[in-house]
Amino acid sequence: MIDIRNLPELNIKQKEFVSEFYKLFLFDNSLIANVEPLLFQGAIAASEFLVYDVRKLYVCLDSVYSFDLTVNAFNGIIHFRNELNAAFNYGQNNSIDYNTITTAINYQKRDFRIKNIWFSRIVAIQYNYMRFNGYRITLV
Amino acid sequence: MTIARQKITELPSLNIEQKILTDEFLKRFDQDNGGAFDIIGFEPLLYEGVIAASEFTVYNANKLYLCFDFLVGCSVVAAAPFGLVTFYDEGNAINLYSQNNSIAYQAVAAVIWYNRNNIHIQNLYFSRIVAAQYDYLKFIGYRITY
Q1: What structural domains and CATH numbers belong to chain B?
Q2: Residues of B with CB below 8 A from A105's CB?
Q3: B19 and chain A: CB distance < 8 Å anywhere?
Q4: Which tens digits make up the pLDDT trace of B51-67?
Q5: End-to-end distance of chain A based on CA atoms, in angstroms?
Q6: Which of A45, A86, A107, A134 is most buried (most C-beta within 10 Å)?
Q7: Do B50 and A96 touch (CB under 8 A)?
Q8: What is the complex's ipTM, to 2 decimals?
């Protein structure tokens, strides 16, 4: 089993920030059953990232969330859930304008990128595609 | 404080920005480096969670944060108050502001509405923050006590 605190990135000089992230990610390695490198590029809908599992976590080195929608009345937002399935951070990158016909705020969603974060699952509103680069952690 | 300086300088392969931050931080605050304080604690810190009632909102004259990566987010949609994070220095004086709002004129309410996008900032130090409208924080860095 891979020790999360001794992943190959630790030895790559250019990845010093990643190594700091791992060092600070103070998991008790005895609780980890498996660590799998994971690259995902595709639709968020029906992907594994939406599904909460009490024994699954993602250590995310880099992720981008995007969409193919036009401007509309909904803001784009990503909810990040922790190991207990509780929201612990949100990501959004909208510009807004006032629609005088519908008298509503219109949101133009731009790509949202976040690096060095961990989560159990996400909830994606308006965003429908993502790229994930990191690890899937399975707990004992 | 020798142990603190050793720990910070033993961090593996700091990049240029992190090295400038840590070197200047030690010059200013580590008395063994000519700084003002006797550093007694140097704790790695990863925090992801709510800002309210967290340690980052509390000023302590013997505490500083050396921050490599900082991100705040919020769950709310556009509304009248604007999002703002205020950083305070070792004397509890403001030394930095940060915001990332998008705005629109809301004709019915006849006010500006703000949509608060994430604020992402790297390589700074602070004693505490005040977060207006932002609810959640990711912090990667060190808690320094002296």
Answers
A1: 42-145 (2.60.120)
A2: 77-78, 104, 106, 113, 115
A3: no
A4: 999 999 999 999 999 99
A5: 12
A6: A107
A7: no
A8: 0.76
